[in-house]
Amino acid sequence: MKRTTYLLFLGGLLTALGNVDSARFQIRYRLLNDTKYLFMRDIATYYGMSYAHGGKSVTLSSKYSRLRFTIGRRQSVLNGIKAHLSFAPALSRGEAMLSASDFGLLLDPVLRPNALPRKAVRRVMIDPGHGGKDRGTKGARFTEKEICLQIARRTADALSRRGYEVTLTRDRDRGLSLEERAALCRRSGADVFISIHANYVGTPSVRGIETFLVTPKGTASTYSTKASSSACSNNRFDKENARLAYEIQKNLVRMTGAEDRGIKHARFLVLRKTACPAVLVETGFMSNRAEEGLLASAAYQQRLAAGIAEGVARYEQSLLKKP
User: Fold this and answer.
1) 163 shares a domain with 94
2) What is the CATH number of the domain that holds 78?
3) Are residues 188 and 293 in the same domain?
4) Could you list the residue range(s) of the whole structural domain that residue 308 is in?
5) Distance of alpha carbon 311 from the chain centroid
């Protein structure tokens, strides 16, 4: 397919994606396989960062931030936190390129939170995964549903101590459908929704924490290559979701010392139908004997709760930060 180079004025696409002042800057883009990609050297200039490109590695850095990308790979590192991109960075005629979607819906909310809507966070809904007949996954000794409820209760307490109004989708061992959980969130008027889960894979050595946000329209989920063709109701919070996921993942990793498995995208129903910024946290792997033990311990649960609560507080601070 023919590749065409355009001059992208920030009164167009980037205004829609990032609320950028169109009078200040211009970023070039190219269409690569029908997807808009931006020149990464221009992105660096836009943020006042230095730009380094060698082989497949691209680094944007400043006094405050350091971003690392790899040509052909969807995993990036934003200020020390792994983040899975919607599209792999590409090389076009020697120029490193980043998709406009990843720029507007992930990178910009992380680097420029004052471009997000200014809104205080007052109500937080915590969703302990599974419950009732649905036990979730099972480790050697514990079930996911009981671990999730214990972590959720501690998280609710940590948030309440910070002054937030907190509700749980379930406060005991009872079953709830995904639709019911999303409906409870809508009725509660929550400003933030956090679903808490524990993971399981067939490889016992795998461990760590990952935070999911809903997949933006026209992009593929982290574990898929098929792009979504339609928007879901939660897509109107794509930018806020990215900032919330970043703050929660960063503070969970910092508080627990767990392996950082990154920020990821998925079309989980409980995220798609939630009427506020929302994330789903996989707190660890019950298939890993050591991590299962940690997840069941009161001390580690308290660290997880502290990380989530700090993430919510930092998210709110970013929304209220003066330009």
Assistant:
1) no
2) 3.30.457.10
3) yes
4) 123-320
5) 12
Side chain identity at 304, as an amino acid letter?
A: L
In a domain, residue 116? The reply is no
Last residue of a domain, one of 79, 111, 143: 111
Q: Looking at the structure, do residues 241 and 285 belong to the same domain, yes or no?
A: yes
Q: Which of 72, 91, 111 is the C-terminal boundary of a domain?
A: 111
Tokens of 21: 């002042």
Beta-bridge mates of residue 278:
193
pTM: predicted TM-score of the whole model, two decimal places: 0.93
Tell me, what CATH number does 299's domain have? 3.40.630.40
Whole-number Å distance between alpha carbons of 111 and 243 = 9
> pLDDT tens digits for the chain (323 residues)?
334 455 444 444 444 343 445 446 789 999 999 999 999 999 999 999 999 999 999 999 999 999 999 999 999 999 999 999 999 999 999 999 999 999 999 999 999 988 899 999 999 999 999 999 999 999 999 999 999 999 999 999 999 999 999 999 999 999 999 999 999 999 999 999 999 999 999 999 999 999 999 999 999 999 998 898 889 999 999 999 999 999 999 999 999 999 999 999 999 999 999 999 999 999 999 999 999 999 999 999 999 999 999 999 999 999 998 66
H or E segment at 296? helix 289-296
Using CA atoms of 185, 187, 192, 195 in order, give the dihedral in degrees to the nearest 10. -10
Strands 123-128 and 192-199: parallel
**In the chain, count of helices (H) and strands (E)?**
10, 16
CA 1 to chain centre: 33
Beta strands per DSSP E along the chain: 5-9, 26-32, 35-39, 50-54, 57-61, 66-70, 75-78, 81-84, 90-92, 95-99, 123-128, 165-168, 192-199, 209-214, 260-266, 278-285
